[in-house]
Amino acid sequence: MSRPGHDSSPTGHGPHHAAVEALAERILKGTYGEGDSLVMPEVQAELDVSQTVLREAIKVLTTKGLLDSDERRGTFVCPREDWNLLDPDVLHWKLAAGVSSDFFADVLELRRSIEPAAAALAAERRTDEDLAVLDDALRAMAATDHNPELLVRADASFHRAMLVASNNRFYAQMHRVIVPVLVQRGRAVPTADDTSGQHPHAAHAAVVEAVRNRDVDGAYVAMLELLDLSAREHP
């Protein structure tokens, strides 16, 4: 199975990228509310872009579920339930616009349904390369000495590596949703995945040890316990 590379935004760079970002920011922050129709000359003036650039930006945001159009209403903002939060760009914009505690709670529910199963698959399918990457993440975590920024980075590396180690292409892709939210949460709560004031290395190491020993049930339970401990520490 191929390993996921560095993520790149399909919106690119330059005026088109800037227009997409600016328009998305207005939608995510509520400047343009759900159901609002966009007055194109006004939006074009606000963004200071050409009609061509604005049309292309609207096409991008339409594919991501933020905008739609019909003959009666023109281009309008879609309901929030239509926004594709699994899209890395939309998720990035959502996190930048600010999220509530219930957003993190929803993501935790998603993680509890995915990451223990991914750890179980990793115990069954992991390669030596997978173990090496997981061990690197553990070493980085052990060396943080409770440094919040380094802990967040090491934690993100660990969870991404575990998803990849599942050797399931769909679970591996979930790092695009889980890791950005984990990083955002870690910055808001500096002791990310820290449990009861203890360094989080031990809880993470327990998952890796089960994976190393090909203990499928043990890996599932250890990952579930890790997520539950973190949730109790940072409700």
TrEMBL record:
<dbReference type="Pfam" id="PF00392">
    <property type="entry name" value="GntR"/>
</dbReference>
<dbReference type="InterPro" id="IPR011711">
    <property type="entry name" value="GntR_C"/>
</dbReference>
<dbReference type="GO" id="GO:0003700">
    <property type="term" value="F:DNA-binding transcription factor activity"/>
</dbReference>
<dbReference type="Pfam" id="PF07729">
    <property type="entry name" value="FCD"/>
</dbReference>
<dbReference type="InterPro" id="IPR000524">
    <property type="entry name" value="Tscrpt_reg_HTH_GntR"/>
</dbReference>
<keyword id="KW-0238">DNA-binding</keyword>
<protein>
    <submittedName>
        <fullName>GntR family transcriptional regulator</fullName>
    </submittedName>
</protein>
<dbReference type="InterPro" id="IPR036388">
    <property type="entry name" value="WH-like_DNA-bd_sf"/>
</dbReference>
<keyword id="KW-0804">Transcription</keyword>
<dbReference type="InterPro" id="IPR008920">
    <property type="entry name" value="TF_FadR/GntR_C"/>
</dbReference>
<dbReference type="GO" id="GO:0003677">
    <property type="term" value="F:DNA binding"/>
</dbReference>
<keyword id="KW-0805">Transcription regulation</keyword>
<feature type="domain" description="HTH gntR-type">
    <location>
        <begin position="13"/>
        <end position="80"/>
    </location>
</feature>
<dbReference type="InterPro" id="IPR036390">
    <property type="entry name" value="WH_DNA-bd_sf"/>
</dbReference>
